[in-house]
Amino acid sequence: MSVWEAPAKINLSLEVGPRGATGLHPLRSLVLCIGWTDVLHFEESDEDHLQVVGADLPDDGENLVWKAVAAIRRGSRPQLHIRLEKSIPVAAGLGGGSSDAAATLAALADLMGRDDEAMRSTAVEVGADVALFLTGGLQRMEGYGEHLTREKATPDFAVAVAVPPFELETSRVYERWDSLDEPTGPEVEGRRLPPSLRLLGPLRNDLTPAAVDLQPELADFIAELSGTWEQPVLMSGSGPALFGLFADLDEATGAAAAVPSAYRQRQAAAPRSNGVERID
């Protein structure tokens, strides 16, 4: 048996380009893995089986974990019993499903004696964010998730994340962004950013206007957190997860504790320098 951590990510910045011929939108995003993790247990078995604990998720081919398994030709891999313990909220813009898929690819690489690099091209096939989680840290992601560049900056902050009590479907947010004539999100720059991010800013999320248009109460949650935290609030991915940047983990923990109980989930986390990791 092997046990793996799969971290969440936040999109510190997310710039979206017009839909291409493939039907997908090219991105330019500054992405950071954080210390908020799912845990996956892998054991060779007589048949493939996925057990999900902590979330109401499909345990069949619709789950990204099984899409990762299916991307490896069946005759060349062991059959697996996988127990997925969910902590990262689903449909929140935090990349939990993609991270779980990356942990699955890494576990298979470990079982099959392959290098993680051999799984990178497979990761891109499984999902846009999956390759990011094989290496983690602070990275610039471009194209359709296939171009990754690790940033040299060392994050000098911690994050508080608050997830409003609703879900947003990624495809619907992008469709609304198209229908709104491709708006840009509000920018955060200069001294409102931690020193390590000032040369990487301004930060913005172009999907924020579309998410607010789909779910107008999101604007109220953003305003509420801005007042509570007394600093800018950004959205991760296609939302609705919201986050703020704080001087250290103690300050972020206090900020997370101040989030009202109406939110679906709240969490303080430090930046994570790596991606998925075997922990047993």
Distinctive features:
26% strand; four-stranded antiparallel sheet; 280 residues; Alpha-Beta Plaits; seven-stranded mixed sheet; alpha+beta; 8 helices; Ribosomal Protein S5, domain 2; 2 domains; single chain
Instruction: Give the % helix.
Output: 25-40%
Strand content of the residues, in percent?
25-35%
Q: What composes the largest sheet?
A: 7 strands, mixed
CATH topology (level 3) name of the largest domain: Ribosomal Protein S5, domain 2
Explain briefly what this protein structure is.
By secondary structure, this protein is an alpha+beta fold.
Write up this protein.
The protein is of the alpha+beta class and 280 residues long. The chain folds into 2 domains: 2-152, Ribosomal Protein S5, domain 2; 158-269, Alpha-Beta Plaits, CATH 3.30.70.890. Helices cover 27% and strands 26% of the residues. The chain has helices at residues 64-70, 96-112, 120-126, 130-135, 170-179, 208-214, 217-229, 249-257, and strands at residues 2-16, 27-44, 49-53, 80-85, 138-143, 147-150, 158-163, 234-235, 242-246, 265-269, 277-278. Strands 1, 2, 3, 4, 5, 6 and 11 form a 7-stranded mixed sheet that branches. Strands 8-9-7-10 form a 4-stranded antiparallel sheet, with helices on one face. The longest helix is centred in the middle third of the chain and has 17 residues, at 96-112. The protein is globular and about 55 Å long. The mean pLDDT is 93.
Give the arrangement of secondary structure elements:
Elements: E1 2-16, E2 27-44, E3 49-53, H1 64-70, E4 80-85, H2 96-112, H3 120-126, H4 130-135, E5 138-143, E6 147-150, E7 158-163, H5 170-179, H6 208-214, H7 217-229, E8 234-235, E9 242-246, H8 249-257, E10 265-269, E11 277-278
Helix pairs in contact: 1-2, 5-6
